[in-house]
From TrEMBL:
The keyword Methyltransferase does not apply. GO terms for biological process: regulation of cell shape. GO terms for cellular component: plasma membrane. This is Cell shape-determining protein MreC.
Amino acid sequence: MKPLFSKGPSLGVRLLVLVVMSVALMVVDSRFDVLKPVRSQMGLVLMESYWVTDLPQRLWQGVAGQFGSRTELIAENEKLKTEALLLQGRLQKLAALTEQNVRLRELLNSSALVNEKVEVAELIGVDPNPFTHRILINKGERDGVFLGQPVLDARGLMGQVVELMPYTSRVLLLTDTTHSIPVQVNRNGLRAIASGTGNPERLELRHVADTADIKEGDLLVSSGMGQRFPAGYPVATVNEVIHDSGQPFAIVRAIPTAALNRSRYMLLVFSDRRTPEQRATDAAIAQEEADRQGAKDAHPGAATGQAPASTGDAQGHAPAASGSSAPAHGSSTSHPAATPAAPAQPRSE
């Protein structure tokens, strides 16, 4: 009876045969080119099997890569949005600092053109009442601010101080309805009164004769009358002149040169508050002192009391005048100039 499962060579014999065949194939492949076409064909056939066996791993890597890339892209996108927002904020701050630098440079340039002593002040508040044009600045009585002190920005006059506090002050702007300022046309010196209208972009000239020589584009400057505002500061520019033959006065409107509703920094002007008589007296005294000093520099001997008049006399004035050298002259005559020389010696010492 034939067995169901026939018994073949043992595993050891099979292994030995495979090892021998493998060694023989390696030797033949390394020494000869006979198996090169066979190897190429087998590589072509096995490539498909490699691709099929590697397909699950590549699919898994692709899916994981897609999900991982999407997560990374979302995180990177959020990071870039945050950085862009921060950079935009810094850019806005830089733009604000640039504009502030420009305004400060303009203000410093205008302060260099002002002959009077000035101090920079900053706007810290605006009166909420729409019918009152007042602002609050960060300089007060402790900083030397006084009532009626002129305030200007880089373009022209803004107003005057009307209320004092220790560390702050209120400034009444030119356009307030209760404010008026004496002005003159810079072109021909025509005098007028510029009054506020309640509009931050408009002033009106009151009681200007219909035949007055004033036209659009004329620059209005402070005239200095009233002893409140210094003369020569820009106030407004005429933009409208209406002549009515039936009215004795013309309607003249002007635009303030100062940026009343935009300026943040301004100048407080410490002008000379002396009267003309005081200024004339002080100037005369200063001139007299200068002449006296010039005379002393031209004759130094007269200032020290060692003039030739210190030759001395018989009563002993010479030792008091010169201290040592007068007796060497041996003069017995009395000189009239010798007597004032004696009290001059203590001042020279």
